[in-house]
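worker-03 picked up job from queue 'complexes'. Input manifest follows; four sequence lines, order preserved.
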Amino acid sequence: MELNGVKIDDNYAEAFPNWACRVIITAINEQWAIQAATEATGFATSAIGCPCEAGIEGAVDASETPDGRPGIAVLFFAGGKKRIKEQVIERLAECVLTQPTTAVFDGMPDAEERIDVKLHFFGDGFEYKKEVGGRQCWAIPIMNGEYIGEENFGIVKGVAGGNFFIMGENIPAALMAAESAVDAIMGIPGCMCSFPVVASGSKVGSNKYKFMPATTNEKYCPSIRDKVEGSLVPEGVGAVYEIVIDGVDEDSISEATKAGIEAATKIPGIKFITAGNFGGSLGPFKFDLKEILGL
Amino acid sequence: MELNGVKIDDNYAEAFPNWACRVIITAINEQWAIQAATEATGFATSAIGCPCEAGIEGAVDASETPDGRPGIAVLFFAGGKKRIKEQVIERLAECVLTQPTTAVFDGMPDAEERIDVKLHFFGDGFEYKKEVGGRQCWAIPIMNGEYIGEENFGIVKGVAGGNFFIMGENIPAALMAAESAVDAIMGIPGCMCSFPVVASGSKVGSNKYKFMPATTNEKYCPSIRDKVEGSLVPEGVGAVYEIVIDGVDEDSISEATKAGIEAATKIPGIKFITAGNFGGSLGPFKFDLKEILGL
Amino acid sequence: MELNGVKIDDNYAEAFPNWACRVIITAINEQWAIQAATEATGFATSAIGCPCEAGIEGAVDASETPDGRPGIAVLFFAGGKKRIKEQVIERLAECVLTQPTTAVFDGMPDAEERIDVKLHFFGDGFEYKKEVGGRQCWAIPIMNGEYIGEENFGIVKGVAGGNFFIMGENIPAALMAAESAVDAIMGIPGCMCSFPVVASGSKVGSNKYKFMPATTNEKYCPSIRDKVEGSLVPEGVGAVYEIVIDGVDEDSISEATKAGIEAATKIPGIKFITAGNFGGSLGPFKFDLKEILGL
Amino acid sequence: MELNGVKIDDNYAEAFPNWACRVIITAINEQWAIQAATEATGFATSAIGCPCEAGIEGAVDASETPDGRPGIAVLFFAGGKKRIKEQVIERLAECVLTQPTTAVFDGMPDAEERIDVKLHFFGDGFEYKKEVGGRQCWAIPIMNGEYIGEENFGIVKGVAGGNFFIMGENIPAALMAAESAVDAIMGIPGCMCSFPVVASGSKVGSNKYKFMPATTNEKYCPSIRDKVEGSLVPEGVGAVYEIVIDGVDEDSISEATKAGIEAATKIPGIKFITAGNFGGSLGPFKFDLKEILGL
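worker-03 finished. Artifact:
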């Protein structure tokens, strides 16, 4: 199979369920909404070593936010309801409430499952209830005026671990293709790339160091292609990147996979696109490249 | 006292000791070094609710990095040696090693106190020792080639909690002054602003909610100025921001305080600059504004 | 009249006809499309001293460009057909064809009036015709591959000089409001702000220097408010900015005026919004603030 | 010859004399200084079709500008003294004086040759002389306060047309190397890259179209490598970019050439570096790669 002259592997990505929460952060301008969103979703690439997975879903136009200011939608993912609640509370308290001019709104008002994120006690009695754009919020006096926040957020059973691999002649080609893929995925609602580009693929466990839960996936390493039996790096490939996608549902990941691969294959020097799975042992969700790309 | 026409409070900032670690992150270009540095220092505004405090110290010119590529210096701060080691390990493993084209180098080669940050087992036996720019590193095969990293980092007893407050006529004036202060501080070596701008000052404990360890500092809140006895918000002030500075030593915080206040007072609409302390009960370090500014 | 608590003057902007041409510039990524667009629309704030007026209209999603790559739409305005043709030719030849990976496409395929922009002779015989996304283009071999370009562009009789004035307590408030206005206008199709923010309003001629075709409009200068009879600067205003808008038709300017003013009035410290006219002597187009804002 | 594993051609760049003028633009923050500098140096890639050549030399720290605000140094180049004076006047009047919060200062106070850039008549009698940081300036009342400007600027006989060519396996590699080269050159004082990256090399005249003063340099075009006798594109090269450098003297161009090539050769996928000359017929300045790189 080929797309824009690039060979596409007849393979599928495998993913697993995960709780997802969307928060809309607004601020006096997009720059400061991005700043708060970036701080709140930092140290959150992979649930293996980070407290959660998180990233920016996309910009929300001022005309569509409850307070009419520029907004950024962020997504948080974690394996348990207790963990996601704890992470959303801590990250909003430490990394959003503290930031200039921010307000936060529930990004999943229709979700049945809910978590409470009670920050208003920070107001020490000076806080009060305030309706903003039809949302029941708390207004907390702070140094730059009032922090406005909803305190009940929807969560849904989402999907973590959607993915595809970009293989290029050299690092610049593969990296520029990965950047283009991430840019394209930013335009797809319902998903985000927490890394956003992964340079170090991993396998479960280790052949040499039994104490390691995960080690480099040598079959995807171009520099040791000749030393590794069963290397999956095709001849002429000098660099590989993985794009990992978490989404609120299967559709968003399918669309993101399609948009990301189409963008990546437009970059000169890209040789091969594939996806990662564990033979069906990891999770119930499968994203088949042939089907998604309509090939 | 006045500076550039802005009233300066005859006051001092109070700060306390904290372990500091500097890591130099290089990449194929500055954009990707910044991306790795930002991810690695996210969710790290305040040690109260975040695992550590961290931020970007500044850019390191390619001519001054061990591998001759563009670099970003980041600083991590934590209260204990065990905690700082754990945080540096996790953040380098999850948020730097995973990022495109990165390498990491010890940013405090002369420090006597050291921590081991052993990531090379990730190589599963394919890793090897490699000297880069006179540094003993490990090369770990990954998908985009080799991750290069030193594995022993200096730490020093630094200073956390340096600070000053910017008070302006309105939010835009105070915020633009805070931005200018942070930009100026970025040019001072040895320190960083983890937030970087704080919109929500806090006091220890609470008057109303006994279960809260910290609540809003109502004396710095312009919107409730008339309701709060002993408000510290001068008449005509509509917004207050705090700049919190962590540094590797006292001098860096003094210099940063000076550069930050000088930059802030150049912005039209700024009314008052002060600093925060707990009457000397918090920590051994005092940063006197009069002395620092030479007034 | 008030909007978001800001007083709106019962006044109108006056504008005049001007030829408009839209060019879609695509590139390997949005960064390089922006670079080419910025170079091509530089030195083009005001037709008084610049060869033309030009600016970025907005981003065009890859899914909507003829070659499926990220695009930027730019608009050029000039008073005569000969002048606009000459400027589009020179700016595409010098500032787009020369830039990495660019292609250009006609942004007004339905316009009846057309200009030829023949660049293909640059190929010295190696050029050839090529259809891209249904567009008849020329492919010109250059150093980074092929430059792709349509060579016939639509032009329409547009409108230049739409405007409104933002008055704030101080420079930071007025400037942040102007930035927000420009951001909001970037989301409105069919128009652009060539400056994008004007800090120096002018009047026709001079009271003191007869050789000057235009001089500062002292009635809008806060620093000499007390010296100028009939100053239009209200008390408490420390800074004024004008947003000038050129559009392909009246509707785009009306929408941009509405979006820009709404965004500006959301910024704290804004006191007054008005518009500029010459009592109806300048041009046939009037943009009434009361009507546009529905007040 | 090789540098960082990349083959370096034993060749030289040829350049010619040109008048150079440096202007320091300051503003309330670096963002707005960059905006003014970008507008003022737009439509200025090549003197062949643009009114002049211009670009950003680099940032000037607030501690080193006359008014203590963040600054950007820009350089203008033109073939005649009349032309450079005219261009500096028009570009400062239309693209700097009009921009928010700007001030301009002479960037060559020691130069013997001087040009007058009288903008103060715009003040219509409200202007007045004001000393700022030891510089004799005019203060002109405008809408956001006062525009501050020196009105006499030094010019020197500089050098235009310094250059080198980067050849890579594919567009991403060559483009990323060109970006790195330009970033490195931004750190060298005294020079700028007006394009900044050239994708379309040209030769004087045309073989086929006698009316064309310049056409594509087919010998540097990878896509027609097999059709062109004497092609200078080595096998395996998919993309070529030229970096053109204008400097205030020969040394700045030599240093920029060195820094740019060193940065470019660090990018994977780069195959060959050379320089462009006309056999010594163009100009008196020669920049020999072997000598400059110390090979």
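worker-03 released lock.
The mean pLDDT of chain A is 97.
The interface with chain C takes residues 28-30, 61-62, 68-70, 145, 176, 179-180, 183-184, 187, 262-263, 266-268 of chain A (CB under 8 Å).
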